[in-house]
Specification:
Chain lengths: 432, 432
């Protein structure tokens, strides 16, 4: 093993042996080269006042060389904020701004010990970093039966982890804490589980109530007390889009500092929150009471970023940072939030109006982009999807046998009634 | 194994069993989900003429929802080319434009069968995709002793591959074909090798002559004839920056269609060629005479992109595409090329002028961003680097015991003589 990797492993082991045990084989092997080209370059940036001949880019007139056909259209930004490499961990000012935002929007983080957010190529990249650093072949990844399909590729196929699903809702359509508890405690013998918590949930648009959030936390503590090391990943992709009286914070705040066998990791980003999906700007943040653990995990994260994409897109990071700093940002974001909330409320009003009876129920939703219909027996989701698409020109997503996901995020409020009328008509026709 | 993965494997096996044998365990397991959310969304894009409620973004007024604080500064571009997700394989128009450019700049590709370039988060990402799809623990990755340090993390640490180095230059400072041949033929028992060919080379700035290129190709054919399956990766990061009478094409063109045991893969990108390092736009392209092999490898590549970053940055892809389409692009690029060539020529003239005697020789260079001094015995590279940095404010990169890398890409032509004078002075002082 590389001596630098071993050194960081030793620091983690000394501070918290459970976290050391959570690392995958790759998580132990990976490190960020301190004596390599990047760190010699960094040293030169500080000291090479006369000539810096270390830089792996071309320069001209004291800045990055660039073509005017590009710069002319991006003239609102300085070449230095567009063309050079962003650091592997992201632009420092962006990381600082995101950290401030995180604390402002999650008051439960006050006084908790957690690291500086590390910039990722958006949320999938954050999840794949977790998979690389923590998932070995056969490790259990415990998440609900209503989930984002890409977990399967990221954790299951790529890392050979074992997927363990539990039922998200009980018969009364509340969070199924007993099922969650059972799925976790089943991992007692293995002594390890990776637990993604995705709220607002994709595909259902569900966020737990405050009381349900407390139940989730207490199940996690019970599993940790039972000797299971838990890598708990809050997948906060749709953070902030809370339209009702649910939790309005990430559970990351409650989990930080909670138990030595719980390693909380926050995965979030600008993509959905700031309506910049294609920009690919996300973050991964670790919580630990030990500064050495935070530094070691940051180094290992930079190592895996260096080994997979080297760095994320610099223009995107600049655009997001600039937006976060703009005095009009909050007001403009609030305006869009109200549009989304209007759509969610309208969907709920329609579903509760009594006009659609006898073909479906629906899963709880109060947040995010989506809601899911649960179709009655005799109405297969895929058949309904096909009929809606080809008879009515209406696109929906079929999930499993019974569920139809509808993204209200992309339908104007005044069209929602017509949309659900058509879905209802299709369901009636299929059910006959 | 997933049935879709198995289906693609079977198509590869039927068309070329050697390519099937080259795949890693992960390479066999990975697939792009055809019946998942992305493909249902794609179907809806075609047929949902009335309402498309599949889209995982928010829309408004027929386009992606966005904040004016961002759009006001990017007004030269349409919101649809910035905010939505780019497809996992990249913007189709960008891929088509890059393919045209590839053929225009590599006439040896004429009439050869090769796939559509797939967009990556730049060159490291392309290399990490090769590592994921083709490198298993213990597989040999054969590349020269003068190399880019990140190969070690990407292939060695991440995938557990065995690094096999050969001497890039012989005693006469020519490409060391016998050493390359020996290193390859040593893999006969294992029957497999991954062979990155990085020309212009980082760190030396060396590109083989046409005759040396032919030698490299004939060594590869000899190894393939000996029964070794070869994943040959042309790492064309610095493509196009050819300042002398070397090869001016990627060896990918010569390798396409050459031998059933040779799978040529081209890794290239806009980052260095178009002076947009931080944009993170690269490409991976496979060559095969069989269309099924090309489709299967494209599907597997999309699968691994989906599982790691989901998609690359959309704004960057838009900016690069726009530049490629601009009528002024070629002329502006040529202008920058001439500046770089002026710097390279000046460095060579200085080194050959006779004014620096007795402290160093230099490795052949004729291309790219860099050149490497080979310091005489008694002048340790790290000691010289430190002295230059702290005494003279000059930043350089020390590589191993004897080599000092100097990036002429970032030093204006009129400063090069002063720079080398200082390096010479430092070397004399160290050597005393």
């Amino acid at each position: 093993m590389n001596p630098m990797a071993e050194q960081w492993n030793e620091k983690i082991r000394t501070a918290n042996a459970h976290v050391h045990d959570m690392l995958s084989g790759l998580g132990r092997e990976i490190y960020f080269p301190k004596e390599g080209i990047l760190s010699q370059s960094a040293e030169a940036t500080t000291h090479a006042k006369k000539y810096n001949a270390t830089i792996g880019i071309a320069t001209e007139n004291g800045g990055p060389m660039h073509l005017n056909v590009i710069q002319d259209k991006l003239s609102a930004y300085s070449p230095k904020d567009l063309y050079g490499y962003a650091p592997p961990a992201g632009k420092p000012e962006l990381r600082a701004a995101w950290r401030e935002k995180m604390i402002r929007e999650n008051p439960s983080l006050e006084g908790k010990a957690f690291g500086n957010p590390i910039t990722t190529n958006a949320l999938t990249h954050g999840l794949s970093i977790v998979a690389d650093l923590f998932a070995d072949s056969g490790d259990a990844v415990v998440y609900p039966d209503k989930n984002w399909e890409n977990y399967e590729l990221t954790f299951g196929i790529r890392r050979g982890a074992k997927i363990v699903n539990y039922e998200l809702f009980d018969a009364d359509m509340r969070f199924n804490a007993p099922a969650f508890r059972r799925a976790l405690l089943e991992q007692k013998e293995a002594g390890k589980a990776i637990v993604p918590l995705n709220f607002p949930n994709n595909p259902t648009g569900y966020t737990p109530s405050v009381a349900e959030g407390e139940e989730i936390v207490s199940v996690l503590v019970e599993a940790a007390e039972a000797g299971i090391n838990l890598v708990v990943v809050t997948d906060d992709a749709y953070f902030g889009l809370f339209f009702e009286d649910s939790l309005h914070e990430s559970l990351f705040g409650k989990l930080a500092g909670l138990h030595p066998r719980i390693l909380p990791i926050k995965i979030d980003g600008a993509t959905k929150e700031e309506f910049v999906w294609g920009f690919r700007v996300g973050f991964i943040t670790y919580a630990s009471d030990d500064a050495d653990v935070l530094t070691a995990l940051e180094q290992k994260t930079m190592g895996i970023i260096r080994a997979t994409i080297s760095s994320g897109p610099h223009p995107s990071q600049t655009f997001v940072l600039d937006a976060l700093k703009s005095p009009e940002f909050e007001a403009q974001k609030q305006e869009k939030f109200l549009i989304m909330k209007g759509r969610a409320n309208k969907v709920k009003a329609l579903l509760d109006s009594g006009k659609y009876e006898g073909v479906w129920t629906y899963y709880p939703f109060n947040s995010g982009y989506f809601m899911c219909l649960k179709l009655n027996p005799g109405i297969p989701a895929e058949a309904l999807r096909q009929r809606l698409l080809h008879e009515y020109g209406v696109g929906t997503i079929a999930l499993g046998e019974t569920d139809l996901r509808i993204a209200f995020s992309c339908i104007a409020e005044e069209h929602l009634e017509d949309l659900f009328d058509l879905v209802y008509r299709g369901a009636q026709e299929i059910g006959q």
